[in-house]
Amino acid sequence: MFQAAVLTVSDRSFRGERPDEGGPLVAGLLEGAGFSVVKTAIVPDEQGQIEDALREISDSGEVQLLVTTGGTGFSPRDVTPEATLAVCQRMAPGIPEAMRYASMQVTSRAMLSRAQAGIRGGTLIVNLPGSPKAARENLEAVLPALSHGLEMLSGRPADCAKH
Question: How far apart (Å, rounded) are the C-alpha atoms in residues 113 and 99?
């Protein structure tokens, strides 16, 4: 079983003005897929604070998967992708490509997502949109493959021909 963390990026949720719906939804989906969610947090849409949280959670060695929700759109305060790019050592472009492809089957607005995915140390970081509906659609598109990627990242034997 892999351990995961969920980081919600939202000014309003951070200030307590709006309940965080995306984070708990994502945590529930991960738990339903067999992940143990050991940490959840909320940060504002401030690139430095997002980067700090991504580093702290990834570098703790506690989680193999860190999923963010929020801050992936075109708004000037949407800087989660930039924070993710700043802290990752290697990128995993196929993950957001697959999410956008699946989401395009639902809405043409999916092409506006700027979500990223990458690796920091032994942690895979994946950005999801802030909308609970879009977060669900995006995560469900890639969730079946994530465990295999995490097996490879951990150095465990992974059968790449099996799916």
Answer: 9
C-alpha–C-alpha distance, residues 143 and 118, integer Å: 15
Cα–Cα separations (whole angstroms), residue 38 to 35, 62, 70, 102, 109: 9, 8, 20, 28, 32
Chain Cα centroid distance, residue 20: 15
What domains sit in the chain, N to C, each tagged with a CATH number? 3-154 (3.40.980.10)
CA-based nearest residue to 113, from 88, 95, 125: 95
Helix/strand/coil for 47: helix
How does pLDDT run across 69-113, given as a tens digit for each residue?
999 999 999 999 999 999 999 999 999 999 999 999 999 999 999
Burial class (CB within 10 angstroms; exposed 0-12, middle 13-18, buried 19+) of 159: exposed
Residues 97, 101, 107, 111, Cα dihedral to 10°: 30
> Is the whole model's pTM more than 0.85, yes or no?
yes
